[in-house]
Structure prediction request, 469 residues.
Amino acid sequence: HPVIVWFRRDLRLSDNPALSEAVKTGKPVIAVYVMETDVARELGGASKWWLHHSLTKLSHALDAIGSKLILRRGKAGEILDDIINQSAADMVMWNRRYAGDARERDAAIKSTLKDRDLTVKSYRANLLSEPWSVETKSGGYYKVFTPYWRAAKDFIDVSDPIPAPTSVNHYGGGIKTDTLDDWTLLPTKPDWGEKLAPHWSIGPEGAHKALESFLDGPVENYADDRNRPDYEDGTSRLSPHLANGEISPREIWHACKDNEYTSRKFLTEIGWREFSYVLLFHHPDLASANYKDDFDKFPWESNQDALKAWQHGKTGYPFVDAGMRQLWQTGWQHNRVRMVTASFLIKHLLIDWREGEKWFHDTLVDADPASNAASWQWVAGSGADASPYFRIFNPFTQGEKFDPNGDYVRKYVPEIAKLPKKYIHRPWEAPQNVLDYAGVKLGKTYPKPIVEHKPARERALAAYKESRS
Ligand code: FAD
Prediction:
């Protein structure tokens, strides 16, 4: 009787407990990935693009150890049933996932299979500790990051990662499979994937290389450089690899082990990822409902033109626009800039944070059900341990502080690239002769600010006050 390994967002061979436990049984292995159709939320466009390439890599990696990846689309329960009926498999293994609807499906599938006397095993593979395992003294979960992370240190699993299997007893019974092309995960008209591709090396090998080169230097100055979007390698850019499970957090931890002091700040960010999963676990509707329900009365504005200007990087604030265009062109946006662009949408434009969360979900290659939702709520002030609402980022002084020479803006907003440093983050203050010299026609070649900073700030504070009254 074969054993089925159901791959999900754990698209790697190394440190993959479900796979290695399945191999250990000595049974013939059936490796399967299901493009599930009964999901609460479809993957975004950028995530689908990444997934296509990541599955290609996984499929090649499985071929190389004598196995084969079966691809099927539909309801996972029905597909597993079908494979079990064809192959007489009597075991199914997978690594856990934590979004609410996925957990429910997994629990239902597990109980159905167990009723049929199959052995079903699930493992923790994508987090350092289970989101329910770190409890406060009184028994609940932590709602504030710092004490959470302090307590989590006693629970996280930093044992050695499991090596990738070198060979697999492959089930040769011929199970029906789709091809990746059947799923049309790649964009066609236009093929914006071509634009994203040069920025990434998709798959575990790319992930480990990114980690290695980050630990080879940039980690030393990470505490400061992580705020500088103008530095190409200020951060690790591991997020899409983590979101797709091409590398495990334990592998990252392990690689930092010899240099714990230098990597401390970096590992704290991995801690934020863990914390986001705690919040998602306890609030399955984290992407759609305010964590703090006193935000339910917030007077959001519906303004399609402003939303579009933000999405397309045409707000007239160069730092915000550079961020939104970086997102569009590369599928990723620097963390400091995410905070500023998100704050701009929520506070300067008074647009509901859920609109921003949706846009990021669709356009980020690292779109993550926990980190995206938790971070948007953090910026909005509606989340657990959130930034207070009245902390309103100034979109041009943030640029001046974290992109002091304007290099980041010049890269993504080329139409104002010739402006001198003094005006690069506030072109509306540039004298006419400077604009002429730089070839900038405000309102024509580059927009004037769609809202004025000071009144927008006051309007945001007034709206907040109104929502509390
Ligand atoms: P590094 O600085 O190298 O950090 C290493 C890893 O730690 C990251 O890969 C990531 O897994 C984790 N991490 C870092 N910062 C955070 C954080 N604030 N919260 C949670 N995990 C973190 N991150 C996502 O992975 N997916 C998202 O969908 C996502 N949406 C976001 C939306 C907003 C509005 C904001 C403000 C932040 C969001 N983040 C998200 C968090 C953060 O911006 C990214 O994780 C980070 O920019 C990824 O780049 P990096 O891998 O170079 O990070």
Summary: The chain has three domains: 3-125, 127-159+204-282, 293-468. The first strand starts at residue 3 and ends at 7. The mean pLDDT is 97.
